[in-house]
């Protein structure tokens, strides 16, 4: 079975169920903390969902690249270049997403309590990390030849900009950048 980026894509393939679970988690968190942003519910929900999409997109791609370098050492130079590219182009999105997450945590701490704030932060981080773990496990379950194909395709497509947040999650990325 030949795999391509359309069939192995963290937001479009088998692990999509984990992205869906992350969406429901984030939706639930945004319902619980809508008042903390002192904005209307819908805007808070959209912002929280965008935050999750940006962090998940970046961290899942980084994790897959790291797995490729680990499993196929001869690709490590190309993987390093791809990771540097990804870190550079996604930096504004990821930094702003972390700043928004901290803003939410601070707002929750002020309006509710510190425990709920820490719980929110840990739950966002845990949801993203669980999804990343599932993506890694999915790739690890492919036969070695298919893993190699996926890794080669991943490196090439990352370097071509196909995995940049502005390409993969344009709406979420823009919402994150526009947040004041």
Can you describe what's shown?
With about 180 residues, the protein is an all-alpha fold. Helices cover about 80% and strands about 0% of the residues. The chain has helices at about 15-30, 40-70, 75-110, 115-140, 145-160, 165-170, 170-180. Helix 2 (about 40-70) packs across helix 5 (about 145-160) and helix 3 packs antiparallel against helix 4 (about 115-140). It starts with 15 loop residues before the first helix and ends with a helix. Mean pLDDT is about 80; it is low at about 1-15.
Query: In what range is the share of β-strand residues?
Result: under 5%
DSSP helical segment count: 7
- How much helix is in the residues? over 70%
What pattern of helices and strands is seen along the backbone? HHHHHHH
Terminal Cα span: 47 Å
Helix-and-strand structural type: mainly alpha
